[in-house]
């Protein structure tokens, strides 16, 4: 249970009374009659063989208010796609699988590549982008939630609390970001958010001065959460990164497109645990190391669009300021852990901070060396403008895949 304190410039919707899930779902069923709801699940095929996704599907099967579930399936052969159809057939709701590696969606992707409008990098961003396109193409939902498929602590109350703010017709929110306590197995997790994003935002504020965007980002309790919900109209002109900067990029787009009173964050789970990425101290092209570089570049790019000028000297100042703030945070988290009977390894925390500090410089140098880098996937408005039939083609490809492999 959390308190009711409002910090920052974004409305926080708390979990004050552990409201019964049945009561909230009954309201959502009423909302669904005028505001139908959908869920996007970006998934790797390997997650079907893990322990998290089978439980997620079992929980979702009991959800009464969803009109549609859209599964984006990456890294799967034809045989694996057929297995996925059987796996997801347990869902009683209308559902479709986007077989992203299948010949039909690959053919559509090639058509968009010819127009320089296709995602340039494989990964979650690309998967989510095509799923968002399918939401627009199918026209079955007005409110949409998205969450990951590796949540080990999942129960269906997470989805209810996530989608409620954009489904309730009495609210005017266009977007809701989920947050939760990253605590599991007696430890505080969420290293990238705790040890990179928050201290980096504070360092940017100290070096660049007061900035409404930095205050906006620092208002989110867990900016890297992969769980968010939105009204369907949000999807038309949002531009998202295809790399690990997805979550930061989505928040930046919300800041660009909407007033703060149209955005909120909601406490969606008491505890949350998922698949953990390796720190990758020796490989900045993988794990948390690559993630930290992508996230940092996403922040630098956004600030540059606001007129901030960066240089090697500026990045050195940001790195030094970050390093001192992050080390102070380690002591704060250590004391918080001890008070709650949890453990926190100071040595491993400092190793992570040292790596993140190095990667701030790497991200800064990459930003300076590649001024024309455009990591954002084009908005669906732009794609439709260039190829008016694209949503119909996407919808048809998914339906033909579904029909061809039905019952196999």
TrEMBL record:
Source organism per UniProt: Opacimonas viscosa
InterPro entries: Nucleotide-diphossugar_trans
The protein's name: Glycosyl transferase
GO molecular-function term, one example from the UniProt record: transferase activity
Keyword terms of this UniProt record: Transferase
